[in-house]
Specification:
It contains seven helices and 16 strands. It is an alpha+beta fold.
């Protein structure tokens, strides 16, 4: 790759479209599981800093771009990436790198973009959407439009190690390979962090493996979220420190003409969930309880959502809705 004496910028772009019935992958490989788990770990780091704020993130996006970067590293930088990961675009890129984001001192910028457009297998009727109260984490309420439908859903519940019950429900997309999983504490006073703090790819897989198909009334808020995340601190917290340091980063396999390092690692994600489906883009033990499942599942409190490619276990998007 050609570089100038004082400036070198590399944009690693991942532009993928997951349409209805996507079948790009056919089985869940160990590498796919490790990539999903790494992406969820980064999400945990991000959400800890977000606390009670809305957040949407792409675990697949960060895992895929870091896997690409791994191929260019050497020495201690490569070891740190491999240890953390445990395995050896569209227009949003220009929006993500705003004015002033890249200057003459920039050496390496990671850019990642992902687009997803999924239609529900069982769309909600717009006529069934009405305003209801949503209970925020601070105890206050806000009136928001909530969709509703009665149908057969895959459902399960589990308890966290500290004894809190959570309801988990699956909303399949058209084509049956992609699903959104919704998880919320059964009791409104229980913080969502009790779940996000123990979350990993295996737990998400266990949710689906323990589900039972039940007829339920689902009430779910419409929501639209947008997040822009600086990934440097989350990645450093997972042990990837050298790649951000000019005197320690080793990208010798990328360029032998200049010492390169990662100056910024950013991710921007948008998601919209409505009656027809989801539009999104992006530049610990399980215990099945015998408690009677509720006839109504009303997501009127902070909840977690996970968009997952079920054949491979790939987690495309996930986030927390603290206020729709």
């Amino acid at each position: 790759m050609p570089t100038s004496p004082v400036f070198a910028c590399l944009a690693l772009g991942v532009a993928l479209i997951f349409g209805e019935g996507s079948a790009s992958y056919h089985h869940q490989s160990p590498a796919a599981h490790l990539a999903a788990d790494f992406g969820v770990k980064v999400f945990q780091q991000v959400v800890q800093a977000s606390k009670d704020l809305n957040m949407v993130f792409s675990p697949y996006g960060v895992a895929s771009v870091m896997a690409m970067l791994q191929l260019t590293t050497g020495g201690e930088t490569q070891r740190q990436i491999q240890e953390a990961m445990q395995f050896k675009v569209d227009g949003m890129i220009s929006d993500l790198l705003g004015e002033g984001a890249v200057d003459q001192l920039t050496r390496l910028v990671l850019v990642n973009a992902l687009y997803f457009n999924g239609q529900w297998k069982m769309p909600f009727l717009e006529s069934s959407t009405h305003h209801r109260l949503f209970h925020k984490s601070d105890g206050s309420t806000v009136s928001v439009p909530m969709m509703a439908q009665t149908s057969k859903f895959n459902y399960t519940e589990f308890t966290t190690p500290d004894g809190h019950y959570y309801d988990i429900l699956e909303l399949p997309y058209h084509g049956n390979t992609l699903s959104m999983f919704i998880a919320a504490p059964y009791e409104k006073e229980v913080p969502l962090s009790a779940l996000t703090s123990i979350l990993d790819a295996q737990l998400i897989s266990q949710w689906r493996g323990n589900m039972t198909r039940l007829t339920r009334l689902l009430v779910l808020p419409k929501f639209s979220l947008e997040s822009e995340v600086d990934l440097r601190r989350p990645l450093e917290n997972l042990g990837m420190t050298d790649m951000f340091r000019p005197n320690q980063a080793d990208f010798s396999r990328l360029s032998d003409q200049e010492f390169l390092y990662v100056s910024q690692a950013l991710q921007k994600v948008k998601i919209e969930v409505n009656e027809s489906g989801t539009v999104a883009s992006s530049s610990t033990a399980l215990t099945v309880s015998a408690r009677m499942a509720p006839e109504e599942i009303i997501m009127d409190r902070p909840f977690l959502f996970v968009v997952r490619h079920n054949p491979t276990g790939t987690v495309l998007f996930m986030g927390q809705v603290m206020e729709p």
